[in-house]
Structure formats: C-alpha cells, structure tokens
Amino acid sequence: MRFGDLIYAEGEKAKNHKPIIECPDSVKSGEGFELRVYVSGHPSRVDHSIRYIEVYFYEEGRDFNPIKLAKAVFTPEYVNPEVTLKLKLEKSGTIFALAYCNKHGLWESSKRVKVS
Ligand SMILES: [Fe+2]
Fold it and tell me: Full-prediction pTM beyond 0.70?
C-alpha cells in the first residue's frame, strides 16, 4: 500500500470534505495573485472538524515535486477551514490541496494554473 492510496477524492463525503481551490486559470509569470482554499459545509467541533489544510505546487519541468506552499492548522469552534495565500509563480503547474478531517481522513483536490 502507498500513502497516496489513503487520500480520498470522490464518494458521498466528498461534498463537504474536498478542499475547494479558487484562483485564476492563468496568470502572468512573476505577477502575484490570490489563492483561496477552503472546505465548505463541514462541522467545526472539537470532536469533528477539519484540522488542517496543506497546499502544494507541482511545477512543470522541475526535477523533484511537489513544492509545499503552506499548511494552516485550525482550532475547532473558533476557526473555519479556510486559507488565502498570495502566490507568485514562474512556471505553469498544478496546485494540490489536502484537507484533513479527524473522522473522515485526508481529501484532495487540484487545479492547473497556466503561467505565461
Ligand atoms: Fe468529517
């Protein structure tokens, strides 16, 4: 078994566990832009919450991937599972986001960003 086999992307629980990635489809090289990642409609209780979101970038043409961009850890009851990053990319690639629920495991989503 590989660790990647433990990451969910589909199924009945996807709707309120998969991270949602919002950013432009294409950006200019070296020009800053905003990336928002969040989980919608999930409880935020001590016994059941999205504990963290991690964001990675697969940069096309790079020898080793991914690049870890950020990790945001959330305290249940007080913080909603949402993070906004200011990014600057030089090359096209794919943003990957992971959201971890303490009851329902790791969930992933991705979005390609074209850099010109
Ligand atoms: Fe959950």
Answer: yes
